[in-house]
Write a structure and sequence with these properties.
Structural class: alpha/beta
Oligomer: single chain
Largest sheet: 9 strands, mixed
Number of strands: 11
Helix content: 25-40%
CATH architecture of the domain at 19-50 and 135-300: Alpha-Beta Barrel
CATH topology of the domain at 19-50 and 135-300: TIM Barrel
Order of helices and strands: EHEEEHEHEHEHEHEHEHEH
CATH superfamily of the domain at 19-50 and 135-300: Phosphatidylinositol (PI) phosphodiesterase
Number of helices: 9
Length: 301
């Protein structure tokens, strides 16, 4: 394996880096986690990978949603979300949301949910629906906290049935959940390192932690901060055959580079790319794409 400073293809998605990931389909440019957002990411921003999150409803249907709150979602005729007795997707049965839950466009549209248009491309989707509408598209799936061990067989069934014919990366902040998924799926799907796995790489010289030993073919997904995405860290992961995907979005308590449009400047993006990352995760894919292309041209020249 080369030293990781240069590599022809991302080991998971098999395309030349850097890849552009549309976080929730581009949550600051389109109604997040909907078909409208995913189409925007593909057709307008020409993204390489679609990132989506999965939660379960109260009756344990696997749905595409970051949440868990539904404060930017019109449900039926809708009311002020602060007045709802139930504000989380885990508090609703799927029958209450199916064809009744429509996501607001980012910005002022969410101030009055009654005005959010009830358009099919704006509705919340079950995971299998989303995959059916996006055949062959590379997908990055994050398992949110509501996904438990008992939900993994159904998740794997959906991926095996509808997800075929594309690279799929499954990630989670939970080391246990990723280990359980790997036990079920074997080598069928690439997986990410957990938050503990990230910390084991960043801190092991100062505070040794039991790490996740097998990095080959797996993804370290981290924040763009220089401490959490240092050059030495990126080289180390890539030397072992792993990929490094960097969030330009908010990452836990850490602010995103793309929180404001002005944050995505060529200089800021180039500084991250020059570290050797395999991909960038963004809420503003249409704004990021030309910056990445400019970086490619300058590097090639």
């Amino acid at each position: 394996m080369p030293d990781g400073r240069a590599r022809d293809r991302d080991p998971i998605f098999h395309e030349p880096p850097p890849l552009v990931f549309a976080h929730r389909g581009g949550a600051r440019e389109a109604p997040e986690s909907t078909e409208a957002a995913f189409r925007h990411a593909l057709e307008v921003a020409r993204c390489d990978v679609l990132e989506l999150d999965v939660q379960v409803t109260r009756d344990e249907r696997i749905v595409v949603w970051h949440g868990p709150k539904l404060d930017n979602v019109r449900i039926g005729s809708s009311v002020d979300p602060r007045a709802r007795k139930r504000r989380k997707i885990t508090e609703y049965d799927w029958s209450e949301l199916a064809g009744h839950a429509f996501v607001a466009h980012p910005g002022k549209e969410g101030d009055d949910l009654a005005k959010v248009p009830a358009r099919p491309e704006r509705r919340i989707l079950r995971l299998e629906e989303a995959l059916e509408r996006l055949p062959g598209i590379p997908i990055n799936i994050e398992l949110k906290r509501s996904i438990k061990r008992r939900h993994l067989p159904r998740l794997l069934e959906i991926l095996d049935t509808v997800g075929q014919g594309r690279p799929i990366l499954v990630v989670s902040a939970s080391r246990r959940r990723i280990a359980q998924f790997r036990d079920l799926a074997g080598q069928s799907y690439a997986t990410g390192l957990s938050v503990r796995g990230l910390l084991s790489f960043v801190l092991d010289e100062l505070l040794p932690l039991p790490g996740e030993e097998n990095v080959a073919g797996r993804a370290l997904q981290t924040h763009h901060h220089r401490f959490l995405a240092a050059r030495w860290l990126i080289r180390r992961v890539k030397r072992q055959g792993g990929a490094v995907h960097v969030f330009l979005t908010r990452f836990g308590p850490l602010k995103g580079l793309d929180a404001e449009p002005e944050g995505l400047t060529y200089e800021a993006v180039a500084e991250v790319l020059d570290r050797g990352v395999d991909g960038l995760m963004t809420d503003r894919p249409a704004r990021l794409r030309p910056l990445v292309e400019e970086w490619r041209k300058r590097r090639a020249g």
